[in-house]
């Protein structure tokens, strides 16, 4: 028997568990990418273990601007209670080190690895031979040909092109109708919808930092104001 609203979703939460970061609801309009039986629409972009542990995103996207290290990967995977996709280098960190870090990430439980735009095709080929989890290639422009990377073994393209993101996605979709695309959603809901309309299957969301969240809380405390956590933390 149906309810008055067949789209109604029962929700269970408590006061403590409501103090989390909620991703924008607009991301649910994306088609998602089915990875190992799970449809993932929202990826929260963070390496902060507290944020990784306290959000409602479908998955975690953990890429950082330092040399990838197994100790960092382990800490991120232990903290996550959702599928996690870890950066393994590909630019300054190249060759066999990328392969070693990627294999270690897979053994520890990562659901995918992320390489950056300068990654050589031969490195991607080696990754494809030695790991069973998806390879995500991040691009910031459309200048580099996509087909050689796809031939080498890239499974998913991650577009991080700032204000050009939607334009880049449209260019990719002209040639590759079905390739999975993750993309940054921008700073407001309209940009998220624009990115999805351009052809992104999933969206990465960059949350406020822990420092920013603490500033908000302390500001409210000093003002004697109550903090409404009913919808969690938002930007």
Describe what you observe in this structure.
Helix 1 links the parallel strand 3 and strand 4. This protein starts with 32 loop residues before the first strand and ends in a 12-residue tail after the last helix. The strands form 2 sheets. It has an 8-stranded parallel β-barrel with strand order 3-4-5-6-7-8-9-10, surrounded by 5 helices. It is built from 8 helices and 10 strands. Helix 2 packs parallel to helix 3, helix 3 packs parallel to helix 4 and helix 6 packs parallel to helix 7. It is globular. The chain has a single domain, classed as Aldolase class I (TIM Barrel), CATH 3.20.20.70. The model has no long low-confidence stretch (mean pLDDT 90). The relative contact order is 0.15. The protein is 34% helix and 17% strand. The chain is of the alpha/beta class.
Write a concise synopsis of the structure shown:
The protein has helices spanning 49-53, 70-79, 95-108, 121-130, 147-152, 165-175, 189-198, 210-223; strands at residues 33-35, 38-40, 42-45, 59-62, 84-89, 112-115, 135-139, 156-159, 181-184, 202-205.
